[in-house]
Model the fold of this input.
Amino acid sequence: MISRSSAFWALPTVVLAATLGGCEPKLTTEKFAQLKTGMTIDEVFAILGPGEKQTEGQAGAVAAGMMMGLPGGGGKKAESDREFFTWKEDRVEIGITFEKGKLVDKVQRGL
Done:
């Protein structure tokens, strides 16, 4: 027989477990590894969800910050046929550069 105090705590425990179960991170090392050169924007969005499109100025600043200290990082100028998207979750950031709709570069911080 279940005591009243056990039954009282059972429901909140189940609710809490169900809530926490849906809190898995969306930006993971595994998902980042799935991103391959040549993927389309739609293929990347299918893995990471929709990203935030950056303007040329924002893209340069974000890429320079994420790639600081890496060889060749941050020195590239955005071109008109390039698009840059970012994803942010907690302390994790992912930046993807697309050229003519295809992934050409990816950077991450915090994974």
Notes: Strands lie at 52-54, 82-89, 92-99, 102-109. The chain has one domain: 26-109.
